[in-house]
Amino acid sequence: EDQVTQSPEALRLQEGESSSLNCSYTVSGLRGLFWYRQDPGKGPEFLFTLYSAGEEKEKERLKATLTKKESFLHITAPKPEDSATYLCAVLHPYNTDKLIFGTGTRLQVFP
Amino acid sequence: ETGVTQSPTHLIKTRGQQVTLRCSSQSGHNTVSWYQQALGQGPQFIFQYYREEENGRGNFPPRFSGLQFPNYSSELNVNALELDDSALYLCASSARGHEQFFGPGTRLTVL
């Protein structure tokens, strides 16, 4: 069964304390992996798309990497405004644009 | 460029009633997807519309139905509301096969 698992469920960091979020996936033929940021009560905000193992994307303090079984979202020197839920999703292998989401990692960065 | 918009923001209904949610897609996008997000969970795919035709459906009963209009805006209709339908309903627009951009969501509460 195609599925996405994210860990940890929740993460508390001190401002400036770097860490990584994990997204492992089982899908027969990866067509794309996506990272989103979601603030409470709002819609997910697109961050990155990764298509093949070895690919990396960066944006400000965030860097996403991809292997054949998992993706990591690295957060370098986080600030309190980085606090949010980070969602990982993969494209369904056959259903054209259906996204399969994980349950997310809730990140709290405190001063 | 206008992003994805959804209306209404919040909605309260009682069991058995019917509801219609609306979504305006981002300029240049021809595909609209609808997702249901329960509290603490990742979004679950309901269905997708491409050029006014349903183009994939998730594990949701037929009382969840939709439309897409010539301007690519979309509606989600839910009949015979149940308590478990209480959730954040998200609309995402995309150019087919590309990144999906989400609206702010409609919070539906069923009493």
Taken in chain order, the helices and strands of chain B follow as EEEEEEEEEEE
The dominant shape of chain A is globular
- Oligomeric state of the chains in view: heterodimer
Structural class of chain B: mainly beta
| Greatest interface | A-B, 23 and 30 residues
Distance between the termini of chain B: 37 Å
Average pLDDT of chain B works out at 94
Number of helices of chain B: 0
Specify the helix fraction band of chain B: under 10%
H-E string of chain A: EEEEEEEEEEE
Shape of chain B: globular
Please provide a written account of the structure:
The complex is a heterodimer of chains A (111) and B (111). With 111 residues, chain A is mainly β. Chain A has strands at 3-7, 10-14, 19-26, 33-38, 45-50, 56-59, 62-66, 70-75, 84-91, 99-101, 105-110. In chain A, the strands form 2 sheets. In chain A, strands 2, 4, 5, 9, 10 and 11 form a 6-stranded mixed beta sheet that branches. In chain A, strands 1-3-8-7-6 form a 5-stranded antiparallel beta sheet, with no helix packed on it. Chain B has no helices and 11 strands. In chain B, strands 2, 4, 5, 6, 9, 10 and 11 form a 7-stranded mixed beta sheet that branches. Chain B has a 4-stranded antiparallel beta sheet with strand order 1-3-8-7, with no helix packed on it. The radius of gyration of chain B is 13 Å and the shape is globular. Chain B starts with a strand and ends with a strand. The A-B interface holds A 4, 34, 36, 41-46, 49, 87, 89, 92, 95-104 and B 4, 6, 31, 33, 35, 40-45, 48, 50, 55-56, 58, 88, 90, 92, 94, 96-97, 99-105, 107.
